[in-house]
User: What shape does this take?
Amino acid sequence: MNNKSLWIVLTIAVAMFTINGINNVTAAPKAASAGTAVVSIPEIMQTSTRAQAIQDKVLQSRDEGIKELEQMKAKLQVVKADIDARKPGSAEYSKLKQKYMQQSAAINAQQEFLQQELMLKNQRAMESLYKEILAAVESVAKSQGYELVLDRDKIELPANSPSELSLAIQTHKVLYYEKYMDITSKVIDVLDSK
Assistant: This one.
């Protein structure tokens, strides 16, 4: 082989090595796919001690509201008994009747307020719990190397109505998974460790 041919072969080899080297450096490294995991949000909400603590707090608030209403109703019964002891049409009877009606209206308003307040507290508590669950899911997924975590909801059959069945089918996304993919217990452990 003459010098000219040798230079051409060497030039081509260096060019190919350089191009191949540049492609390897600039190409994004391909990560091995760690896979997909599933969790059960309802199971977490039903079995987690953190979820139970949040629910207990909401129930305590409800019980305090019920106690307050019962006290108001007890006072109303005292006024009712006083009315029953008076002669209908007397000045005292009319005053007590007015007081009874005002207290009764106040009880109804307080009951409506407490129902709305309890619904709002429950909503805020569930939102807070859901955010904590998402953070726990992210923590477990990152530590275990999962790239995707899906909620493995469960369809209850038979459905109560055709529209309920249709909605369940439309929203049910995980149709099958292997048991090893379920990280629900690990998420519960992380959530309850806080």
